[in-house]
Amino acid sequence: MKFLGNLIWIICGGLLSALGWWIAGILWCITIIGIPVGVQCFKLSSLSLNPFGKEVVDEGGAVACLLNVLWILISGIELAVVNFLCGCLLCITIIGIPFGKQFFKIARLSLFPFGAKVVKANVIKEGMGY
Fold first, then answer.
1. Contact 115/61 with Cβ under 8 angstroms?
2. Which of 89-93, 101-105, 123-127 has the lowest mean pLDDT?
3. pTM
4. What is the tally of structural domains in the chain?
5. Which of 75, 9, 76 is nearest to 47 (CA)?
């Protein structure tokens, strides 16, 4: 089911979203100071391309918190709002609810990318003893 969801996601705009994050990551990585931001853009690109079957795990500390504050002030709010609105629009129909939930996941990661790790969903369940 994850494969079918990801295939429909890629066809209906996930590829364009991932490509945009990838280009942004390359542009941020041109400067040495922007490399941490570029790495986070690549993380968001990976999730935007293949969101079904992946979860976001928080592993941040004090440095991640400070970087998230800077990220929010520079570009995090705009990205999160756009992804949140796309998720709300998709949740209007019953068929769009799974895709809307993926946009909400991306919106959360767009707001707080530092200290977050994208992992397969079954890795989380195995780590918690399920």
1. yes
2. 123-127
3. 0.77
4. 1
5. 9
Question: H-type helices in the chain, by residue range?
Answer: 2-9, 15-29, 35-49, 62-71, 77-90, 97-111, 121-127
Contact assessment for residue 56 and residue 118, using Cβ atoms and an 8 Å cutoff: yes
Between CA 102 and CA 121 the distance in angstroms is 13
Helix/strand/coil for 116: strand
Domain that holds residue 64: 2-127
61, 70, 91 from 8: Cα distances, Å:
36, 34, 16
Tell me the C-alpha distance between 69 and 16, whole Å: 27
**Model confidence over 6-43: pLDDT tens digits?**
888 888 777 877 887 888 888 889 988 888 888 888 88
DSSP-derived letter for residue 41 is: H
Exposed/middle/buried for residue 49 (C-beta within 10 Å: 0-12, 13-18, 19+): middle
The tokens 């991932």 sit on which residue? Answer: 18
The most distant pair of C-alpha atoms in the chain lies apart, rounded to whole Å, by 45
